[in-house]
Amino acid sequence: MPGATTSIAPELTSFIKLLYREAALFAENNFPARYHDMLNAFCNAAQHEGGLRNFYRLCVAVPAALGHNMQGTFYLYNCETRALDKVCDTGTGLLDPPEEAGASLPPSREPYETSDMLVFPLFSRPPRESECAEMPWRHDIDHMTDYCHHLHHPDPFESRLNILGMFSVRPLSRLFHEDRLFFRTLSRWMGYELNKRLLTVQNLRHLCFLNSLGRDIGHNVIIPNMRFRYLLQELKKKIEAADSLRGKIEECTTLPENSHEECGGVGEQFSQLLGDLEKCQHNLIQQHTQISLFLESLFREEHFRYGHLVVKATLCDVEKEIIEPQLELYAHRFEEHGIQVDKPLNMYRQRYPLMVDVGLLSQVYANLFSNAIKYTSEIIDHRGEKRKALAYGCEEVPDFPAKGMKGIKFNVFTTGPPLSEEECAEIFKEGKRGINSKAIKGTGHGLAFIKRVIEAHGGEAGCEPTREGNNFYFILPMAPITEDGMRHQEPGGPPRP
Q1: Chain-wide mean pLDDT for the chain?
Q2: Quick check: 480 pLDDT over 90?
Q3: Helices (H), 105-226
Q4: 237/122 same-domain check
Q5: Window from 143-157, 223-237, 361-375, 388-402 with minimum mean pLDDT
Q6: Residue 91 in 3-state DSSP?
Q7: Which CATH number fits the domain that encloses residue 164?
């Protein structure tokens, strides 16, 4: 109807005022038309060019598009070094890998001038009045809450204000008043668009990790848990044998006293059955202990919350606390498959100062031993003798992970056809298996899991083919701490090939 007024919800009043303020701000800037056009062009182009790399290129292209022989540089905050990395520049394009900006270009909450450059902070969103920005996404264990605050808030764009990076324009001599106002406004849009892309990448990585963790749970918990069925069936057989033996005992109690010699074998049967039941109970306890350990280490709340493996490291005697329990679990199956286990002398009574996650590293050895059962085969060794064996050991590695430091290399060697160098490089990738594994049931997940666990510990994993088989290894950094009573002896060599 003519003259009717449009109804406006009361909750929109503050947003209408915000639009008025922003419009007034643009009017105050009094940009020439080409600056307005360039802002609109940047916003539209940012919607067309997806991905981080193209976004960096787009940002540093703006100064060149404006003219005046200006150049821009895009800096991204590095979570690990807690400093800025130079990722793209008008003159050189994308830098791969990025270059460290150094202490001469620190992150700042305010624009500043340095080395003939005007530098602007890139905020995750426009700052509110009196709001103080923080450095973004710190990911060490002590600051995990800061690292994933985006995941804790129902609307990540309402979370804490972060400085994601910096954007610089040079030379100062070519920056007029309108240019400074323009780049201050542009940097706000850059930060907002960068935040959206970083959040997208973070969430995609989180989803990929959760998918991988689901495979870990299936591979390391659900499948081994099926062994309970076998153990319970064995227990059922023992109970049935006990029930049968009870009938014999009851029958013996009804016989005349001078006929008890007919029941002489019942006592032996009872003793043997008792031993079998104790062994069955021991196996069940072992299996339950392992599954419980794996469940605790894979179902940690931190894994799901932060989107990566969170290592709970403790000082550990690797052979005593990890390798030997896993060997005991697999001993019967090694025996069934005719696999000889060669134990090293160099690890006995020796404790390396290693900080490891017992639950996760136990699963590493469980996967290696499970693979050994599948793939170990008989060979004719260098002495001309038949051999089907697994050997494990360790050796000290200098300059790992950096010069002057030390690491410990853990080896698990199995006899069989050696893998090619190409296969050794590929089999630690998800779903990849060796050429000779086609007839053997498997998913190609175990070694990928091992690689992730070892890298989460700051180490590396690999495979070394030899004439008589393959040595699967991983290297862990030696902890720079000691305990009272800890002995550090010189380690011996790798397991005998």
Answers
A1: 82
A2: no
A3: 144-147, 149-152, 177-217, 223-225
A4: no
A5: 143-157
A6: coil
A7: 3.30.450.40
d(Cα 304, Cα 310) in Å, to the nearest integer? 9
User: Is 128:157 a contact under the CB 8 Å cutoff?
Assistant: no
Q: Does 184 reside within a domain?
A: yes
Share of the chain above pLDDT 70, in %: 83
| pLDDT value of residue 146 | 44
Please compute the mean of the pLDDT values over residues 333-344 and round it to a whole number.
93
Q: What is the DSSP letter of 158?
A: G
1 domain-assigned: no
Q: Tell whether 13 is covered by a domain.
A: no
180/443: higher pLDDT: 180
Q: Are residues 126 and 152 in the same domain?
A: yes
> Are 289 and 408 contained in the same domain?
no
**Residue 439: pLDDT over 60:** no
Domain that holds residue 282: 226-299
Closest by Cα among 128, 109, 120 to 179: 120
Shared domain check, 424 and 338: yes
Say what the pLDDT of residue 443 is. Answer: 65
Residues 463 and 339 both lie in one domain: yes
What average pLDDT does range 243-258 have in this prediction? 70
Q: How far is CA 368 from the centre of its chain?
A: 19
* Residue finishing a domain among 157, 181, 211: 211
What mean pLDDT comes out for the span 292-312?
88
Q: What is the DSSP string of 415-481?
A: ESSPPPHHHHHHTTSTT---GGGTTS---S-HHHHHHHHHHHTT-EEEEEEETTEEEEEEEEEPPS-
Is 25 domain-assigned?
yes
Kindly tell me the sign of the dihedral angle through the C-alpha atoms of 132, 135, 141, 145. Answer: positive
Residue 261 — very low, low, confident or very high, per pLDDT cuts 50/70/90?
low
Give, as one character, the DSSP assignment of residue 155: S
Going by pLDDT thresholds of 50, 70 and 90, the confidence category of residue 276 is confident
Reference 363, options 255, 466, 290, 429; nearest CA is 290
Our count of domains for the chain comes to 3
Contacts of 274 (CB under 8 A, 6+ apart): none
Q: Is the pTM of this model over 0.90?
A: no
Identify the bridge partners of residue 355 per DSSP, sorted by sequence position: 315
Whose CA is closest to 341, among 359, 319, 356? Answer: 319
For residue 392, the model assigns a pLDDT of 94
> What DSSP string runs through 246-288?
HHHHHHHHTS-GGGGGGGHHHHHHHHHHHHHHHHHHHHHHHHH
Q: In 71-95, which positions are buried (b, 16+ CB within 10 angstroms) versus exposed (e)?
A: bbbbbbbeeeeebbbbbbbbeeeee
CB 396 within 8 A of CB 490: yes
